[in-house]
Design goal:
Blueprint (H helix, E strand, L loop, with lengths): L4 H10 L9 H19 L30 H5 L5 E2 L2 E2 L7
Helix pairs in contact: 1-2
Amino acid sequence: MSVSPQDVEKVALLARLTISESDLPEVTERFARVLGLVDELNTIDTQDVVPMSNPHDMEQRLRPDAVTRSNEREALMASAPSQEQGYFLVPKVID
């Protein structure tokens, strides 16, 4: 695919990017290479390929929804430096 420096400048303007005049030839060449790769991908026959929503299309192994621990609030609150009515007390941060 043929890409002109004007095309690159227009895309840069739309993307709100600044490309210096000295970098414009290199950016134009890189842009043309990327578009060439996209053209190459478009030539691949994907007629018999099933679309995927995720490249890892696997099912999640779920554990049974069962209670495994009892309420340990008292044990957890024991290490709190300050608490009131079962809640952690922290210093005021915002006035």
